[in-house]
Amino acid sequence: MRRGGLLMCLISGLFSLLGCAQKKMSEGDLVRVEFSRHGTMAGYEYYGRVKQDSTGAYVLRAMRESRGPLYEKKVDAAVIQKFRQIIEEEKMYKYKEVYTPMMRVLDGWSWSFSAKFSDGTVISAHGENATPKGDGLARIRNYLTELALEGEQIETPADEDEW
Fold first, then answer.
1. What count of other Cβ atoms lies within 10 Å of the Cβ of residue 113?
2. Longest Cα separation, the chain
3. Summary mean pLDDT of the chain
4. What is the spatial distance between Cα 109 and Cα 41, in angstroms, rounded to a whole number?
5. Bridge partners, residue 122, by sequence
6. Mean pLDDT, residues 102-108
7. Which residues are registered as beta bridge partners of 125?
8. What is the C-alpha radius of gyration for the chain, rounded to an integer number of angstroms?
9. Once rounded to an integer, what is the mean pLDDT over residues 129-154?
10. What distance in Å separates the CA atoms of residue 154 and residue 70, rounded to the nearest whole number?
């Protein structure tokens, strides 16, 4: 009886290891991508977002430079597809939720990334003084910045939830 219980425990443990779901890229359309970086000073060091509005159009709001003003412009579906391509190529869908250094850091920086898809899938990751491997975050930021070069400067909303 005791061996049977032990055998069942081992088998169920093996099945649970084999059954662990691998993170996969969403099949849905990308509807929002957002990246921000914060320093030790208050406010955003960098912020950028592309979001589908209620009419179905995609709207970019991003900084051109660190701690600079926001710029806004409408972008087409090809732009959102480029973000999707970056996420897929850099395997950003495999990001952990939180990145922190092994040692405690009392001063430094933090970042946040999120992507939302039409099927409800959300990629959400953030970190303090540590980032995931690869160039995904830098590529997202660089593309947001590049797109903002042709945008119109807007007032920074007093309520950050409006961003």
1. 23
2. 74
3. 85
4. 9
5. 116
6. 81
7. 113
8. 20
9. 96
10. 6
Query: Cα torsion at 111, 29, 65, 100 (round to 10°)?
Result: 10
Query: What is the dihedral angle through the alpha carbons of 95, 113, 136, 80, rounded to the nearest 10 degrees?
Result: 120
How wide is the angle at C-alpha 133 spanned by C-alphas 132 and 138, nearest 5°? 80
Query: Is residue 20 predicted with pLDDT exceeding 60?
Result: no
Higher pLDDT, 157 or 48: 48
Rounded alpha-carbon distances, angstroms, from residue 91 to 8, 20, 88: 36, 18, 5
Mean pLDDT over 94-113 rounds to 90
CB neighbours of 110 closer than 8 A, spacing ≥ 6? 37, 38, 126, 127, 128, 129
Sign of CA dihedral 79, 124, 66, 139: negative
Q: How confident is the model at residue 18 (pLDDT cuts 50, 70, 90)?
A: very low
Task: Indicate the length of the chain as a whole number.
Answer: 163
Taking only the tens place, the pLDDT of each residue in 44-92 is: 899 999 999 999 999 999 999 988 899 999 999 999 999 999 999 999 9
Place of tokens 């990145």: 99
